[in-house]
Amino acid sequence: MDFRNEKDFLESVSYSYRNEKSLISQWSIDSYIKIYKSFMEDSTFKKGLELGCSNGYSTECLSKLLGQLDVVDGSENMIAKASARVHGNNIKFKYALFEELDGIEEYDYIFCSYVLEHVLEPEKIIERCHDELRHNGLMFITVPNALALSRQMALEMGIIEDLYALTENDIAHGHRRVYDMNLLRELVEKSPLHLVDIGGTFLKPYADFQLNQMITQNIIGREQLKGMQSLALRYPNISGSIYAVLLKNK
Question: What is the SS3 assignment for the chain?
Fold first, then answer.
């Protein structure tokens, strides 16, 4: 693999992300971290690895749950944004591709949120994470859902032509594939890790920019957002994002 070309690619697409002030983006992250947290026992003494840091909001949230958090990202721009936002003695940033991890079994938890849709070979990333986890360690995965209610609405409106085709926005963000619940399950069940749980994080009836407008105009508030979290548990197949929790037990 040509690491330099891949880093150049990630650097170029990193500038397409302008979600620093997106309230719905933060709520989406809160939703999957709430799920992750439910599996993390005595985590303040544990060591975690976050793959990809985006603007640092997820890093900030995860760092409060762990004794130590290492963060790896293949974009210097993303690391600069996140490190400017997050300050803590228990956080260490590293500029590298996930494929360059050294395979030492040292992490209790690995967080892989909105990553697998970007990478060249998701199967190998999961295998590498298996090597990085301690025995009984957990890997948490979250990906956008191709069958999200908001995406299905866009299909019915004629905005997109195929639920499984990459949109212009997907391509601008460096996405290489889409997942639904079956595709995610198929991917993780082929891995050396054991599937513990799979489901939806947050049911999204509209696009992010529309939801942000509704929040700022007080059309929807915390109760509606909490309802969207609950509905994702009931209807995971149309959730905005889907998650999997994997265990290393061999």
Answer: CCHHHHHHHHHHHHCCCCCCCCHHHHHHHHHHHHHHHCCCCCHHHCEEEEECCCCCHHHHHHHCCCCEEEEEECCHHHHHHHHHHCCCCCEEEEECCHHHCCCCCCEEEEEEECCCCCCCCHHHHHHHHHHHEEEEEEEEEEEEECCCHHHHHHHHCCCCCCCCCCCHHHHHCCCCCCECHHHHHHHHHCCCCEEEEEEEEECCCCCHHHHHHHHHCCCCCHHHHHHHHHHHHHCHHHCCEEEEEEECCC
Query: What separation, in Å, do the N-terminal and C-terminal C-alpha atoms of the chain show?
Result: 28
d(CA 209, CA 165): 21
Residue among 42, 41, 43 at smallest CA distance from 61 = 43
pLDDT at 130: 95
Q: Can you tell me the distance from the alpha carbon of 74 to that of 95, in angstroms, rounded to the nearest whole number?
A: 6
Taking the model in full, what pTM does it have? 0.95
Query: For 64-118, how does the pLDDT look when each residue is reduced to its tens digit (9 = 90+)?
Result: 999 999 999 999 999 999 999 998 899 999 999 998 887 777 999 999 999 999 9
Q: Which residues contact 185 (CB under 8 A, 6 or more apart)?
A: 195, 198, 244
The CA distance from 151 to 145, in Å, is 9
**Under 8 Å CB-to-CB from 14, ≥6 apart: which residues?**
75, 77, 78
Please give the Cα distance from 83 to 10 (Å, whole number).
18
190's tokens:
């082929």
Q: Which amino acid is at 181?
A: M
Closest of 150, 154, 167, 153 to residue 204, by C-alpha: 150
